[in-house]
Specification:
With 105 residues, the chain is mainly alpha-helical. The protein has five helices and two strands; from the N terminus they run E-E-H-H-H-H-H. The protein has one domain: Orthogonal Bundle (Arc Repressor Mutant, subunit A), CATH 1.10.10.370. The protein has a two-stranded antiparallel sheet with strand order 1-2. The longest helix is centred in the middle third of the chain and has 17 residues. The protein is globular and about 35 Å long.
């Protein structure tokens, strides 16, 4: 386990750069990940995906499958990939503070 320090906030991350504890999530984490993902500015659609992922994770303890994420956000899968170029699993889940998904996300 590694630790990063970004703008005065410390985050424990795994070997793939995912935050270790969902409770550590903050807007500072989002700023860190968006730099890593090459996202210039977060818009309402980015935040909607993050909010849906966090809500689903809080209720179910896992990230939703991509089809479920698409249905809940009402965004086509292609659009989710446009918002998060590294994909819903790597980019969006990482940004939302979820653990690295193990299945098809």
């Amino acid at each position: 386990m590694a630790e990063i320090d970004f703008n005065g906030e410390k985050f424990d991350i795994d070997e793939d750069g995912f935050i270790q504890d969902f409770k550590q999530w903050s807007k500072g984490w989002v700023q860190y990940v968006k730099q890593q993902e090459g996202i210039d500015e977060m818009n309402e659609e980015h935040w909607k995906v993050v909010d849906v992922l966090q809500d689903y994770y809080t209720k179910n303890g896992i990230a939703p499958m991509v089809r479920v994420l698409s249905k809940l956000t009402k965004f086509k899968l292609k659009h989710i990939y446009e918002l998060f170029p590294s994909g819903p699993g790597k980019g969006a889940c990482k940004m939302a503070g979820l653990p690295k998904p193990t299945g098809c996300v």
